[in-house]
Structures
1.
Amino acid sequence: MKIAFFYLIIFFSFLNINAQNKQPFDSIQINSNQRILNNLSGIPLGVTIGGYGEILFNKPRNLNAEIDVQRLVLLFGYKFDERVQFVTEIEFEHVKEVYIEQAFLNYNIVSGLNLRVGLMLIPMGIVNEFHEPTTFNGVERPSMDNKIIPTTWREIGIGASGRIDEMSLRYQAYLFNGFLSHDGNSGILKGSNGLRSGRQKGAKSTMSNVNIAGKVDYFGVRGLRMGLSGYHGKTQAVDQQNEIPGSEIGVSMIALDGRYSYKKFSARGQYASGTFSDTDLYNEITGRDLGKKISGYYIESAYNILPITNKQSIVGFVRYENFNTHHEVGSFLIKNPEYHRKEWTFGFSYHLSPGTVFKIDYQNKTTLIKDSNKGQFNMGVGVWF
Amino acid sequence: MCVKIKKYLVNLFGLVFLFSSMSFLNEQDNLSAYILKKTKKEITSVFLLVKFTMEKEAIQIPKSNFLKASDLFKIKSGLETKGYALIASAPSKTDVFDYLLLFDINFKLKKIKVLVYRENYGGEIASKRWLAQFVKSGKEFFIPGDTISAISGATISVQSLTSSINHVMESLKKLKV
């Protein structure tokens, strides 16, 4: 009741401010027979169609190659009016697995502030949000954006996003449903990939705890964009199971990312780390080997070998990744050396036009285990329209 | 646990309610009034004019892929022409955004501002500091990634705005206004 009263007071104070704000403008005179602005005719309303796709060829050394339509994502948007828009992305993975990658209503409240509700991407790191194949180098997404940040990480939630142009800031803050850690039969989360298996993706997901997520992007320095993201909360366990101690664990994540470009040179890097609580108990009741801390980073630099004025670009790049899903483990667990991975990737992205890319690269993957060196050759085409 | 979620939900509804009440503040409902108000504010700060009139010019800059619509205004203080204002629309990935160019009487660029950006991504181009490079460079033709720095995550809108401005500058030269 108290809370309701509190919100009502603020509501009325807004109404009051609004009344004071309505002033006619006096000093702009426009010939009355002319339409004031032509511009308004240019605004598209209604349906938007778009999409992106990746068709990939992976050839691990000494093994057969895999050829796969890794993902084809179709975007449909509908703009109800100038301020209300619905966005959805329907994803086909490996031709026959269907997912909804995003489905949310965006309500532009005032300039610089949007309210969003629905299935959305958790803003963490670079690739989870910017994952269209033309926006990153390498046939495959960075591996730490799979094992540490479980890309494509999306859940149902509500929150706000917007920009502050004067400060060159973009902000996002959401309440999300969290990872599933126990389905009643067994524990879901495991040491090899941290939180990845626990993504509920908005499909009949169970909710026992609310999680918060936020990100701030700063782009006020020429050519540089920095992002700081955070996530905090608890995992979910199905009914009744959630009353058994150890079924849910606490999750705190932080990520720092940067992207820089100067003329034909570009670079990007990302650090992410997740800390979990109650993993000892969780591992005990589930028999899993979930670590207490997962963390990792990657750095990449790239150079466009074609003149900058060309429509096409051929970008050579090299990326180093180092990540560990057993960065720290509880007292009853021994660190698994297989979970500390180091990867080198180098190759080319040939952008035929904005929105289409042909990629080729070679990856060298090792773990802390002796002679674990593995090579892999990749090719792929990517489109975004 | 249930109590915790309830508490969250009550606050959540409160916040949503608050947010929607804020929409009463929204001036974008009358978009052209909103755009003109922002334009007027910019003219006041750039030309240091409090009292002025805007007269719509008859000439039209031809539309292009990167210029969906535009209006050119003459800025007058009394009888004296102080400069020009162009309100234009350019495409982002799936929508359009509106921007403002202010010129002196010789059509030298004095200010760029993004008035309304509608799409979820790419809005970084509205950054004041990033837009300042167009004016500071003193050039009339801009190359994204070279004379104009790139913005990661806003590549399409950077290309669009730069091409749009290039098109405007070129057309103004041809029209010899």
2.
Amino acid sequence: MLTSKYITERGGRMNINERWLVEESRKGNIEAFEELIKDYKKSAYNIALRVLRNVEDAEDASQEALIKIFKSISNFNMESTFKVWMYRIVVNTCIDFKRKKSINAVSIDETIDLGSGREIRREISDESNNPDALIDRNYSTQLVNDAISKLDDDFKTIIILRDIKGFTYVEISEILSCNLGTVKSRLSRARKSLKELLEKEMSGLRW
Amino acid sequence: MSCNEICDKLSLYIDNELSDEEMRQMEEHLKSCENCQKELEEYKDLISILNSLPDEEPPEGYCERLHEKLSDSSVQFQLKTEKSAPKIKKINRFRWLKYGSIAAALVLVFVAGSMNNFRFSGSGAKSKNEAAYDYSDSSAENKSSIEAPREALPEEERYEMGYEGQNVGEIRGQMYDVNDSDSAMITSLKAEREMKIIKTGTISAQTEDYNRFLNDLTVKLGSMGGFLESNNTEVYQVYNDNKLMYGSVKIRIPQESFYELIDYLESSAEVSRKNINETDATKEYYEKDNKVKNLEIQEQHLRELFEKANTVEEMLLIENELRRVRTEIDALNISLSDIDDRAAMSTINLEIEEVMTASLTLKAKDNVWERSKNGLINTVNGIIRALENLVVNIISSSPLLIPFIIICLVGFFKIKKYWKKHTP
């Protein structure tokens, strides 16, 4: 009902619809909130997926974040855009989730013991010898994904926000609660680091 | 600008985040430096790939599960949507489980507690049973100590019976001079009848110190010429470390001291029930007495006949008759001596209960404030006592209770997990 009634306009700043949906969500209106996060929940999930590299964890973490957003929406003061505010919560929740999980984190190509003697070997497709992987100017999506996953959390987050999600520097500084200079230098270093990682992979491939 | 500096700023250049001055320098450098140009291209390629990285679709049912969780959290907003109903049900079920297990634990505590009590009273391990039979004015003392067969605590469970001279069979008739029987009969008929009144009392009392009370009573009885005919003492309740005693005592007291003793009992313990009974046995007594005397006369005549008997047959007949008369006299005499005994020595059946605080010490004439204060104190004491008992019961039943609670908790979490898994 709400969907048909209020067409959300995608834009950088808070529009009236979004404000109205936020107000409704504050009253505990789930449908309004779902409408509000309709366009964001997928990227929230994807951020979580990139940080946690695991479908189940990504779902748990992103949903935890969204619920946190719903519960604390009364604390949202409309100063920043809702988008920025909610991504801050998503990023922080995912990082926290990973930190909590890191105790029993598993390597991506290690065997996982499921108990009672059953083991599964993580299937990482080995495309190093596949010529098709060298399309797209030698950067395959798979390689890029692997490289991103090898980045430190700080670098990973900023790459996700800037280059994958397309946030502006100012928005990123708000999301990460740091100043613009930090964003600039961190992004530069993150990109450099990612590029080096990829080059290393590529040289390994060419060899 | 060196190539290194340029490289560091390529990222910002791509995003147009450089100042105009820096931008101009950068463009100049890039025109002349192929390496940096290549580097820039690589960065652009990388970023374009990153920009085009496809978003993965959330797994199936993501939105439904999210909605479920949102509904959960909206319960806190007290917003009741239709879909949140099953969740509430679930919560209620767990609440039921939680309170149910608490209730079960409490039931267990009380069962364990009552089992404790049962053990004390049931096995009788702590009951004291003493009985003393004392037949006065006897010289022979015959004490025997019999060990009860299944005794765990011999010093407490002693069954002591003292027999002191049995004069029950004493036959009054023998005291009469056979030769004087006629005149004795006349005097007895003419003599002023002595009243034969049997006094019995039943008293229930409470005391704070059972043993002291009983000792005092024994001393008092000794001075009055009475005695404890039987004493049956048992522990009827254990309060913390205090054993509360209950005793059923049979007192024999010379009838002239009967009321004195009752007064004494009333002053030394809290009498909750008193029942005094006086039975006039005078008529019954003298009827039996006359019968005895007539039978004795008859016996006398039979003896005279016996002297005159000539044949064995006659002698046997008379002897049979004599034996019959003698038995009748003996029976009547036993009855008479019993009445004598009961009239001379009154009986008091005393039930004594040991209490923590003599609840009847409250003066009924206290004013309202005093009474309500005491009532309050009693209530508070009662609550404290109940809590103490609860703690004692919980601790004493902890070997049972702790595994039970652990099982409950494990079960609770298993079920919770199960529900979490099987509710979308």
